[in-house]
Amino acid sequence: MISVEKVAELTGHSNPIFALALSQKPGILFTGGNDKGIVEWSLKSNTFIKVMFPVAASVYAIHCPAGYPLMFAGLRSGEVKVFDFLKQQLLPSLKYHLKPIFDIKSVNHKKELLIASEDGTVSIWSMDTLELLHTIKVSADTVRCISISPDEKQVAFGCRDNHIRIYDLEDYTLIKTIVGHTMAVFSLQYSPLGDYLVSGSRDAQVKIWDNSTYQLIHNIPAHLFAVNYIAFHPTLPYFATASMDKSIKIWGADDFKLYKVISREKGYNTHRLSINKIAWDGDRLISVSDDKSVIVWDIRFD
Length: 302
Known about the structure:
By secondary structure, the chain is mainly β. It is built from no helices and 28 strands. The chain has strands spanning 2-10, 17-22, 28-33, 37-42, 47-54, 59-63, 70-75, 79-84, 89-95, 101-107, 112-117, 121-126, 132-137, 143-148, 154-159, 163-168, 174-179, 185-190, 196-201, 206-210, 216-220, 227-232, 238-243, 248-252, 258-262, 275-281, 284-289, 294-301. The strands form 7 sheets. It has a 4-stranded antiparallel sheet, with no helix packed on it. Strands 2-3-4-5 form a 4-stranded antiparallel sheet, with no helix packed on it.
């Protein structure tokens, strides 16, 4: 039995919200979107704290790497803003891409930052010096999402050309191109044990791929429209998917069965438009939407 309670709805954004990230500091959330700034919220009191810094273009990705007092915000312009929490100020932006930034992730053991763009390339930066180390041409079209395997040996890129490309994180060589989705791959997550990879696409399918053979294990006709994001529960064997169809669904990470649907049709006072990103904060699930709101859900697994 999974029970769901809406704990809070955070309002203040005046336009769609495309990105969210939990801070390295517990109880703090950052959101960004089609507004003119990155917003900081308290998850302890579920209240607005402040606008962190202004941005000149829409924010599609926010990343707060563990072990670094930094926040990275990827903009539609291709620029990546860097905020230093210790200095409480912006550092010089990371400038390489000229097209929108869709995802940012970090490789802890290499102290490297990966930035994916609409230009089809992924740029790799030093986390210590913030210098550009190298770039890889992943696709002729947009790279939408990045997932790094738990052992940090592989990275998966989801592309607009419907393909998933797996690279070796040691030398950034291509290991495998996975073909299966019929539309752009919007979301990717390695399972917590790293034994499989979950992909979500504009084709509304969720696919489970074996991480040793790269074969399709399971296909889930998960949603009515695009699967925008996938997030594994931090400790329990479940993952959640968020969709353009305005619903969140919770699935078993071991049996791939559907356990919960959070939607208006099921009686929940949820988002009225596309749900763009989700994040787990313990047993709480946080969602952001085109409807300009942030919702905090308390999920109980009985």
